[in-house]
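Title: Prediction job returns without error message
Component: structure pipeline
Severity: low
Priority: P3
Assignee: unassigned

Description:
Job completed but the reporter wants confirmation the result is attached to the right record. Sequence as submitted:
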Amino acid sequence: MTTNECATYVDNDTFEADHTSTRDWHHYTGELTYDQVQIIAATETLFPAEQESHRRAAQRYAVHNALQSAHADMSAPADAVRVGPWKIDNDSPRPYREFAGAQHVIEAGSQPLAKNWDAEHDEAVVTVCGVQDDQGNVARYISVTGKTFSRESGAKLLTALAAALSELDAAPTFSVVR
């Protein structure tokens, strides 16, 4: 068990934050980065009466820093191009981080990619993304311009795209519908 001033890291599984502390945020400065201290100090200058908020911000930063430090030697998945910071939240029983692999861009060309396609977007981006837990377990999913698909849904999407391509190939280049 590893303990810092604001949280206890229990059996490489969870952080338990001390929500009952009566210390002010300055007590945690040894566990914060210079930038984190500067942010809280600036906020304290603007909102001096919000000491509980400043203490909780310092505590969150300290827990975040301890989490990053505890997993600093964990290798990223081999296909990861971008890796996010380690996180812990109420929705996950274990610390985790998100990652993304290479992006595959589908350009619109001379026609929009879809009816009513946002004029600012002239391409679709397909990325294999994932989540890695603190034990190295990885779950991957497919993201298409912000939409996510499980492996099963991704296979259905691939089948649907292949069927649509076949349909396009079988159709005349120009047709008139009356």
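Comment from assignee: result matches the submitted record. The CA atoms of residues 117 and 123 lie 10 Å apart.
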